[in-house]
Design goal:
The structure holds two protein chains of two kinds.
Chain A lengths: L2 H4 L21 E4 L6 E7 L3 E3 L4 E11 L10 E8 L7 H16 L5 E7 L3 E9 L3 H9 L9 H14 L6 E8 L10 H13 L3 E7 L5 H11 E7 L5 H13 L1 E12 L3 E6 L5 E2 L3 E6 L2 E2 L3 E10 L5 E14 L7 E12 L2 H6 L3 H24 L5 H17 L3 H16 L4 H14 L1 E2 L2
Parallel strand pairs in A: 3-18, 5-6, 5-8, 8-9, 9-10
Antiparallel strand pairs in A: 1-2, 2-4, 4-16, 6-7, 11-14, 11-15, 11-17, 12-16, 13-14, 16-19, 17-18
Chain B lengths: L1 H10 L15 H17 L1 E2 L6 E2 L31 E4 L4 E4 L3 E6 L5 E2 L10 E6 L2 E6 L6 E3 L2 E2 L5 E4 L4 E4 L2 E6 L34 E6 L5 E5 L1 E6 L6 E2 L10 E5 L5 E5 L6 E3 L2 E2 L6 E3 L4 E4 L2 E6 L19 H8 L9 H8 L1
Parallel strand pairs in B: 5-6, 16-17
Antiparallel strand pairs in B: 1-2, 3-4, 3-13, 5-7, 7-8, 8-11, 9-10, 9-12, 12-13, 14-15, 14-24, 16-18, 18-19, 19-22, 20-21, 20-23, 23-24
Classes of the chains: A alpha+beta, B alpha+beta.
Amino acid sequence: MSMESTQIIGPGGAPAGYPGAQGFDPGRTVVGAGPTALALQVISGNQYAHAPRNSADHALIQLDASGAAVGRRLPLNLCLVIDRSGSMEGEPLDYVKRACGHVVDLLDQNDILSIVTFEERVDVVMPARRVVNKALVKEHLNRIQPGNTTNIYDGLAAGASQVASVRTDQMVNRVVILTDGEPTAGSKDYSAIVGCAAEQRSRGVTVTTLGFGPEYNEELLAGMAKRGGGNYYYIARPELIPEVFRAELEQLMTIVAKNIRLRLVLGKWVEHRQVYGQQPVLGPRTVEVPLPDLERGASLRTLVELGFGRRPQGTYRVAKIEVLFDDCITGGFNQRLDGDLVFNFVNDAALVASGVNGTVQREIEVARAARSLERTMMGIKTQQLTAGMAMADLQKTQMLLQQAGMDQQAAEVTQAIQGLRSGSGDVEKTLIGTMLDIDLGKRKS
Amino acid sequence: MEERTVIEPQFQLPSSPAGEATQILPPGVGAPPAYADRTQQAMVTTCPVCGTPNGPAERYCQDCGLLMGSTPADVEPLPDLSTLPRFVDAAGGREFPLNAGANSLGRDSADILIPDSTVSRRHAQITLDGTSVTIEDLGSSNGTFIAGRRLAAGERAAAMHGDPVKFGGVILTLNVPGGAARSASSDEVAAPAAPAAPAAPEIPVERGPAAAAIVLPDGLELALSEGVNTVGRRSSNHVVVSDAFMSGKHAEITVNPDGTAVLVDVGSTNGTYVNGQRLAANAPVNLSDGAVFTLAKTEVTYRASPPAGAGEPAEPSEEAVDPAFATARMSDPSAEFDRSAESDSATA
């Protein structure tokens, strides 16, 4: 653990002991703005809280990945897990082979690749190897033939065990699984498959899911990506497959911080209420959330809500914020950033009303947008909402996202509105990804 | 300690019995460890709010999070959860204290936040007025049930102490210390009880009209009624005095029909003094009109007549929230802060 990252660096440069001390702003602590991959910002939802009453407020924990392209990237330890069920026959499988070929071209000799295919049976087309003979790998790829059913669970497990067999902390370890259908063979249980993805993540192997075409189960794939710590993509048409592979690979090659874990240590008279969009692991006074890997220049916003018990007036740290991560720039593992979440507890309700932080407030709005997307999707699915009502709902959410500067997500909602208008069935497949992005709080620079 | 046992024999006085050897040490030997203790303590700062000792490197109290080096503006007694009206989730082991007034309950951004899929986002509104609790269902999908009866959407109904209240699939038990429990005939009670004094759950005795008074140094008169009057810093006392050095429950003054009274210190931290003598805990002394005594740092005069114009009991919480008063008291660095409030709640 390097000293720089553990030191508390106030905005003034020196640790300050009093609220009146120069440069000390308890509402905002910035830590770790050094040569490390990540910087931590802790922003209170309000400068003040009401001391004589039980209350609740929010905090935004923001991680910013360094934008500088320094040093070598970490080598990849990648497994491509390809659905070769009967429905993939023809164009889809051809594009997949081509896309995998591009991936092979982009990898270098330090990277490790494995390829697994699944139908009802799982085949290891290529066990985990350094990419030395690219022509040979492509030859393997070209031999993939379509089969019958879809055994997602065993495909995922086989891919993960390929990655795990050569896994080290000095690599980006990921399984990328592509499917076009519902699980029809092997374990078909949602929670078993999602649980398998979560298990891989706990072993340091993240899982990205690619859903292709109209037939796959978007809830399953989004759930796998969320718990697996990777990305979810919806691929509407076969000719888009290579582009999505390229995007995923680019992200993997620019990861600057991985295995990020956020931990809140709550003070006395503080209770966890929620971490928006996440299911944290709760200890007696701790709240822990695993966060997705961050690529260069990206940032990650985690919104938490805490409850405060009444207390004597004063300035309190209601939670200690700890972030553990592997720094892919310096090669330091289990690096740590610390921050303080501080509120001034006062008796004056008017003061509390005046102290609201606009940034955090906007983030709450965005988090609500995710929930309203969820409601709209549910309404469409259960046919409780007509297309017109759903479009009106989406219109509102789109505006909200636009105002919050989340252009990509706003564009996705616009796309969904057009989908509804034209009656295409991919609205939910798009929106579930939008929702996942908002829940994870990830922003591109 | 080990060092001490090694060097002991050298300094042992020849005449001393062997059994006492460990106690008899020349001053020069005993002093260094004592000094070492003191310097260690000097590095430790005790949090003025929660009493946790904190090392010099801690910027915030490790336990309650108070910014070390800052002075809390008032040390109000900390809430003792077992005295507050609250919902108890027996299954989840959580307790949800109710604030006075309206409390929202739901799955999303609510005062009482229940992250359960059977609970609607805006499920119900719970209103606490004194010890009476009313619950309104806000049109929840899975309903609100008080003691088994489902509320219609928008219906408001009273809930009693001990009632199981079901929100969707989550059952919470209402616990209102001092509140009436449901009896066979009280099923239809809908109107909230007359606003009582802020919940004083520990006090079984109803307060009568003012019969006597105590007078504070600033001239403020606090009414006493006939019978037992509890005095302390907590709002659950009959007479609340905001002296930061006073204990949560400090003393009891029993006013007799003839106007005399009996004063008992109930085991306060900073003591009750009559004529400069500290009273032993639970030892009663008689008070007559004009008697002067000291509760912690506040000198008080007993008066056998009620405050002028006092027809009804004094509102004890009125002056309890005067922060200026408490702050002035707090600035005396010589006295220790009283933390009996926490120990009270720990033992309650």
